[in-house]
Amino acid sequence: MIENAVLVIEDGRIAGCFQGEAPAAPAGEPTTAFDFPGCTILPGLIDTHVHLNLPGDGLSLEDAVREDDGVLVAISMANAARALRAGITTVRDVGGARNTVFHVRRALSLGYGEGPRVLACGQPITITGGHTWYFGGEADGEEGVRHKVRTMAKAGSDFTKVMATGGGTLNTMSWLPSFRLSELMALADESHRLGRRITAHCLCAQAIEWVVQAGFDQIEHGGFLVAADGRQEFDPRAAEKVAKAGIPVTSTLAVGGYMLKEYRARQARGPLPPQDQRIFDRWQRMFDDNLEQFRRMREAGVTWVAGTDAGWRFTAIEGLPLELELMREGGLSAMEAIVAGTGLAARTIGIDDKVGTLKPGRIADVVVVGGDPLADLARLTEVRMVMQAGRVCGSR
Ligand SMILES: [Zn+2]
């Protein structure tokens, strides 16, 4: 933390960070100065788990994918613009329908619309009938999954995403591994052979152990479900294996956070119908379990990286500050939480040579927020300016 900081940006990159006063610019060189008294300058925020395709207004995935690709691209572009305005200068999209997210990444790179830097996997690879199969990512057997990794690489994947258990889609089993261990090993091998990192959605202990064994680079959610009713049992052995492998786990606590917020708001308007009350109770229990597991995983030495699962049900694309706040509730300091959504996030997804910190030479993705987020992480929502590669967003 630098008090009275001056950040110098040159040709879209960080030139230096100084206390009090910056060295004078060479004579004749045009400079622009911005002054933000009482504010904090941070690296642009990075959300490592979003779904740009999904509106985050409560719509289920089943309903969202009824829309044609053109509409999904439009939703994604709208989400991208909102994310950037919220100071989120990089998102990693961990699953969309068909090639829609690649189209979005391309359109943004051509300058059509504003949005964060997008890293995309395309379709998450899933077993036949598995979690999010509607996106088009079904593949089975060792040869089948290798072919799917290659197909996504051909379409433009930056990394590979695998659904190693079921999830919150109809008729999938979150409490059981989806792929066999041999398929997971083929997935990791093929992805690495093609120079791509690989991450897995895991909601049960067995799947966690298997993806560690298969050599995956990261785990999403890291849940410990044991039954269809949402019960979880923390498994210290699985946590220890993750810690030992040094694989970061993406937190996604905001999903529960937003879900509870929504149902609390409904409750405030009047008594909930029994069906809604059941959903509310179930999410309350799962959220408490998730927070407890967050603490225990951390105690076991697991590294948590920030990701919201934005788009999923009520999770807003601007949800990263809430995610960081929940990570702090789970035992991180405010600074650790901010690092989990900036520098550590960049390192986890392999772009720390470009963004994530304000080191000289890095691309100038910068956000300015009101007040001191170390005193109150909610300050991260008071965005005063967003800069992408040295360009002030909204200024074009
Ligand atoms: Zn997700």
Commentary on this structure:
It is a single chain. This protein is α/β, with parallel strands linked by helices. The protein folds into two domains: 5-42 and 360-392, Urease, subunit C, domain 1 (Roll), CATH 2.30.40.10; 44-348, Alpha-Beta Barrel (TIM Barrel), CATH 3.20.20.140. It has twelve helices and 14 strands. The strands form four sheets. A five-stranded parallel beta sheet has the order 7-8-9-10-11. It has a four-stranded antiparallel beta sheet with strand order 3-12-13-14, with no helix packed on it. It has a three-stranded parallel beta sheet with strand order 4-5-6. Strand 8 (198-202), helix 6 (205-214) and strand 9 form a beta-alpha-beta unit. Helix 4 runs parallel beside helix 5, helix 6 (205-214) runs parallel beside helix 7 (236-245) and helix 10 packs across helix 11 (334-340). It is globular and about 65 Å long. It starts with a strand and ends with a strand. The model has no long low-confidence stretch (mean pLDDT 96). Bound molecules: zinc ion.
